[in-house]
Amino acid sequence: MTGASSDLGKELIFSLLEKEYIVFGVSLDGVDLEVDLPMHLQRKLDDYVERFNEHYNDHYNDILCDLRDDQAVVDLFGIIQEKTSELDVVVHLAGHFTWNGLKDIEVEEWQTLLQTNVTGVFHLLKSLYPFLKPKDSHLLFLTNPAGEKSLPMLGAYGATQAAAKSLFQSAEVEWADLNCKFSYVTTDPFVSKIWDHIDLPVNVEDLLTVNDVVDVLDFMIHAPQKLEFSHITLRSKNLSSMKTFVDDSQEFISDLDTDL
Question: Cβ of 167: how many Cβ atoms within 10 Å?
């Protein structure tokens, strides 16, 4: 799983650990399960250790990796290969986010978006192929509506999301002989640390929660292999539209960028 250090990543780590998966969590910053957890996840960690009577590190592998660096990604899969030669589930959550208009975004920021969101996916897929299990592996790609349609202040970010999704779709076509499952999930904004310092023009309770997204991903991961989820869109019925959210938020947000 890429993007393991995000709020969503941490929740998904425990969802998978509770199902007795061996998890490889990949991120720029790493996840120290001893200190990086909110209280509710700390309780889950304690329950997990007590339930399995073993240390969580027996099943959780924290790996620091910059997906923009091709050799770092090769090394990442070298680490994975020390424990397994096949991956049942691959979840791509990593990405770089910026909120800026096309006329205002700096070239350097655009390059960061491209390198992280597009080149990083290319590096990931290039090294991933040998680890896929024919008729069994499941690849999930998470994006947001900016990758599906043009939205103000999200044009540059959305373009890289669309390109990254296209790479996954190309892999799905080119690797059709493996008969692996590819799933694509588009989500409305959900409560996360991105919005911590922003006075949103909507009620936070109207946004999706991290647990909403995890519940859906958990269902998709554990659904029978014959079930295919070509594209799922998660929307909060309390938000009139993503475009309204973007339009109403512009005056509150300036030059917001972060690694997810």
Answer: 19
Tell how far CA 243 is from the center of its chain: 22
**For residue 185, what are its two tokens?**
């999930």
Phi, psi at 215, each rounded to 5° = -60, -40
> Pick the residue with more confidence: 204 or 173?
173
At the top level of CATH, the class of 13-20+82-259 is alpha beta
Q: CB within 8 A of 231, min separation 6: which ones?
A: 184, 185, 186
> Can you tell me whether residue 187 is helix, strand or coil?
strand
pLDDT, tens only, 34-66? 666 666 677 777 776 676 655 566 788 999 999
CA separation for the pair 88, 131 (Å, rounded):
9
Other beta carbons less than 10 A from residue 201's beta carbon: 14
Pairing of strands 181-187, 23-27: unpaired
Every domain of the chain and the residues it spans: 13-20+82-259
Q: Which two tokens stand for residue 23?
A: 């998890």
On whether the CB atoms of residues 137 and 179 are closer than 8 A, the answer is: no
Tally of helices (H runs) and strands (E runs) in the chain: 8, 8
Element holding 140 (H helix, E strand): strand 138-143
Residues 6+ apart with CB under 8 A from 107: none
Which one, of 119, 110, 97, lies nearest residue 258 by Cα? 97
Cα 28 vs. chain centroid, distance in angstroms? 13
Max alpha carbon distance in the chain (Å)? Answer: 56
Report the range of poorest mean pLDDT among 19-28, 76-85, 185-194, 233-242. 233-242
* Token digits of residue 172: 């799905």
